[in-house]
Design goal:
The structure holds two protein chains of two kinds. Chain A starts with 7 loop residues before the first helix and ends with a strand. Chain A is mainly beta. In chain A, the strands form two sheets. In chain A, strands 1-2-5-6-7 form a five-stranded antiparallel sheet, with no helix packed on it. The radius of gyration of chain A is 28 Å and the shape is rod-shaped. Chain A is 12% helix and 48% strand. Chain A has one helix and nine strands, in the order H-E-E-E-E-E-E-E-E-E. Chain B has a single domain, classed as Butyryl-CoA Dehydrogenase, subunit A, domain 3. Chain B is an all-alpha fold. In chain B, helix 1 runs antiparallel to helix 2, helix 1 runs parallel beside helix 3 and helix 2 packs antiparallel against helix 3. Classes of the chains: A mainly beta, B mainly alpha. Chains A and B meet through helix 1, strand 4 and strand 7 of A and helix 1, helix 2 and helix 3 of B.
Chain lengths: 200, 144
């Protein structure tokens, strides 16, 4: 018959494992295991039915158009975002993804948004072109209304031979508040909406 | 008389506009500082384990007013800019105060929770250790 003493090592190991299991709640207070998930933010634009369809394209003066802009926070922490709404013609530059630089164009409208981790934010944005004038091969967009605010834009667009029209782009840049820098920083995300104003 | 009226329009109106522009600008900066400060305290409260969903909703409300203030300022509507900036700053201050209270409560709760967890764990380890020792001695006597 085997002696108990022969199982001493096994018994001690088992007891230590049991003690370790009992101590897990305390260890979990001090040891944080990273979950390894990627940190990022999402920015999207939806049509008037809250789907990725029916986006306004052919735009008429004094007609109101609706889109929805949304943000998803997957940063692993709550964040303070800013969405800048900007307008450009075909020749003006978009933000550069390669070096994370935003467009130099001034913002028209802005959203200051606080989104908790793993949550989303969505708001409607309605806009209307209030005043345009056309001369030969150029169009001057004088004013634009966004969510009730009227903006003097005075933006010129030249006739696009290739696509056959006057085009502008309304685009949305995502910025976030960097606590380390104590300032807003471009988050290298933007979405855009081409508008054909030929019929205006 | 006519000259006096003209003098008022020529000299006083631009001065008044300039002062309201400066005032609006100062109020906007003050609201920005207030919101960022509130946001930082809300984050601390969240990290301490407090439920900050209500505070985040109010911060977003303050953010909407701040955006409206900046856009009004950009449109030279300094009265509205001041109004919106003040509304934003007020909410920011309220949120900051509430966040401090929430943070303190959450830290106290967290401390209590940690204390009970540690006490439970340490007691458990001692009980398992002593129990194992006692069982081992019992087994040794029973099956020498």
């Amino acid at each position: 018959m085997a002696k108990v003493e022969e199982y001493r090592g096994l018994y001690v190991t088992g007891s230590l494992v049991l003690m370790l299991i009992v101590a897990v709640p305390t260890f979990s207070l001090f040891i944080r295991i990273p979950d390894g998930s990627e940190e990022f933010s999402e920015l999207w634009l939806l049509g008037p039915t809250l789907k990725a369809e029916g986006y306004p394209f052919n735009v008429q003066v004094n007609e109101s158009y609706l889109v929805y802009v949304g943000i998803g926070n997957r940063l692993g922490r709550s964040a303070y975002y800013m969405v800048y709404v900007k307008l450009r013609n075909q020749t003006q530059p978009l933000p550069l993804a390669s070096n994370s630089s935003p467009s130099m164009l001034p913002p028209l409208y802005e959203f200051d948004v606080f989104v908790r981790d793993d949550e989303v934010w969505e708001k409607p944005l309605d806009f209307a072109v209030l005043d345009v004038s056309t001369a030969n091969d150029s169009m001057l967009l004088r004013s634009l209304q966004v969510n009730g605010f009227v903006f003097q834009v005075d933006e010129v667009s030249l006739w696009d031979e290739e696509r056959g029209g006057f085009f502008y782009q309304l685009f949305f840049e995502l910025w976030y508040y960097n606590m380390t820098l104590s300032s807003f920083q471009y988050h290298n995300r933007f979405v855009g909406l081409w508008l054909n104003m030929t019929g205006s | 008389m006519i000259f006096s009226f003209l003098a008022v329009f020529v000299f006083v109106s631009p001065a008044f506009a300039e002062s309201s522009e400066e005032s609006a600008s100062t109020d906007i900066v003050s609201a920005e500082v207030s919101i960022v400060s509130a946001y930082e305290v809300v984050l601390e409260a969240e990290q301490a384990g407090g439920n900050v969903s209500g505070l985040f909703a109010r911060l977003s409300e303050a953010g909407e007013f701040l955006a409206a203030a900046r856009m009004s300022y950009g449109n030279d509507d300094f009265d509205d800019a001041t109004l919106f900036a003040n509304l934003s700053g007020d909410i920011g201050e309220e949120v900051e105060n509430e966040a401090y209270e929430l943070k303190d409560r959450a830290q106290n709760d967290g401390f209590q929770r940690m204390w009970f967890t540690n006490l439970g764990s340490v007691s458990g380890v001692i009980v398992v250790g002593l129990g194992s020792f006692w069982v081992w001695r019992f087994l040794k006597r029973r099956y020498p």
